[in-house]
Design a protein that fits this description.
About 45% of the residues lie in helices and about 10% in strands. It is of the alpha/beta class and about 240 residues long. The structure holds xylulose-1,5-bisphosphate and magnesium ion.
């Protein structure tokens, strides 16, 4: 079996974007709308159980102010809040406050030299991916990724496998020739559901989650933790040989 492509998750995998990126962006959008909602770091960690920003807002309302969902314009309000949040988030990303996690740039560079194909499978909004890649890897970085599957292109977000299946279809590769890189149990379940061997790097919000089925769980992709991603990929098949 030959590894031909790496498929990266974004939030928590490429960069630790949640606590100091998405979270303050949500709070700024709520303040702009005159809402006294404030997601502190602990509450946000709970809300991350639900992927997708619009879905997360709805999940928060259902658990904290269900009467709000009775409003006739609730759907439109959620969309407006999320659009405002995305504007705030893009400014945070463009400010350079969200660097790539350790080892990510090195791995992408090594993968390009080894002529591995690159793709992205994420729940976040497509524009968030473009700006993060540009601001961390440079203006041509987006073009390094043949397929970018993001946000609402699929009906069901992670942990559903849809986004990884969407990416595999466009790569025209079977899952066994790819390796997914994820940070969360939701993301791992999504990748495994699409049949992908998966490497997990725990992030600040996902440490200690259930990563059963991952090829390996690492603190990050830094050289002292990952010296040969090919060896991790090959584990997928040596493991199968034993079973
Ligand atoms: C993480 C998510 C996203 C972000 C917020 O995505 O679940 O919803 O938290 O981004 P992944 P949006 O780990 O799959 O990259 O508000 O744009 O959804
Ligand atoms: Mg993630």
């Amino acid at each position: 079996m030959t590894m031909r492509a790496l498929i990266f998750d974004v939030d928590g995998t490429l960069a630790d974007t949640e606590r100091d990126g998405h979270r303050p962006a949500f709070n700024a959008a709520f303040a702009d709308a005159g809402l006294d909602w404030n997601w502190d770091a602990a509450l946000y960690g709970e809300l991350l159980a639900v992927t997708g920003g619009k879905e997360r807002i709805r999940h928060y309302v259902a658990g904290h102010c269900p009467e709000f969902a009775e409003r006739p314009d609730f759907d439109a309000l959620v969309k407006r809040l999320h659009a405002s949040k995305t504007e705030h988030y893009l400014r945070i990303v463009e400010s350079g406050r969200l660097p790539l996690r350790p080892g990510v740039a090195r791995l992408i560079c090594q993968a390009r030299i080894a002529r591995l194909r690159l793709a992205i499978a994420t729940t976040t909004t497509p524009e968030n991916v473009s700006v993060l890649l540009r601001s961390t890897l440079g203006s041509d970085a987006e073009g390094w990724f043949e397929v970018i599957g993001a946000g609402d292109v699929v009906p069901a977000k992670k942990p559903a496998p849809d986004i990884y299946q969407w990416v595999l279809e466009r790569l025209e590769l079977p899952p066994e020739h790819c390796l997914a890189l994820e940070d969360s149990a939701n993301g791992l379940r999504s990748a495994l559901g699409a049949g992908l061997p998966t490497l997990v790097t725990e992030s600040e919000y996902t440490a200690g989650q259930d990563f059963a089925g991952a090829l390996a769980v690492l603190p990050d992709l830094a050289e002292n933790n990952l010296d040969d991603i090919g060896a991790i990929y090959r584990k997928a098949y040596s493991l199968n040989k034993k079973s």
